[in-house]
Every structure is written in C-alpha cells, then in structure tokens.
Amino acid sequence: MADNPSSKRTSPTLVFYTRSGCHLCDVAKEQLEQLRSRIPFEIEVRDVDQDEGWMDQFGDQVPVGVLDGRKVFKFRIDKNRLEKALQSTHVMP
Which helix (H) or strand (E) holds 32? Predict the structure, then answer.
C-alpha cells in the first residue's frame, strides 16, 4: 500500500535575516540550531547586506526571524514564543 502524501506533515521555514560580524546573529543562529534538534524546521538565511530591500526593511534590526510572513523575533529569541510559533505552523500539505 502506498503512502498517502496528504497524511505527511511538512516542516515550516523560518527566514533568518542576518549579517556577518553580528554577535547577536551568531547567538541567534546557535539557538535556532539547538531548537531544530527538538522541532523540525528549515532555516533560510538571508544576509541583509546582499539585498537593498532586505537592508531597508531589516538592516538595523538583525537578527530577525520571519515565519509564515510574521516577524517572530528581533535582536533576541524568546525560545518559548518561537517554539509555540513553530509548532503551530506545522501544516498538512
């Protein structure tokens, strides 16, 4: 019997706005990797210095995490809040 693809859950993607040389970004990335060991999700890293639009929107706020089009953290991660947001976005395809 074949797997029913509609019964499989997909992992959410967190868009992580960052820049090199940002200490808070390094701390946030470590926290995200730790969280990924408990909750499956993808991380799409975007360096704000590589895109003028990203720079305009997030340049002075990094690190920033966006999940499902919604900002879920800025500067520092509230682990409980982010964990709840990630768990609520696991969707059925």
Answer: helix 23-36
Tokens of 20: 């090199």
- Residue 37 token pair: 């060991």
State the pTM of this model: 0.83
Residue count of the chain: 93
Neighbours of 36 (CB within 10 A): 15
pLDDT surpassing 80 at residue 73? yes
Q: What is the CATH number of the domain that holds 36?
A: 3.40.30.10
Structural domains of the chain, count: 1
CA angle, residues 31, 59, 25, in degrees to nearest 5: 15
Residues whose CB is less than 8 angstroms from the CB of residue 45 and which lie 6 or more positions away in sequence, other chains included = 16, 18
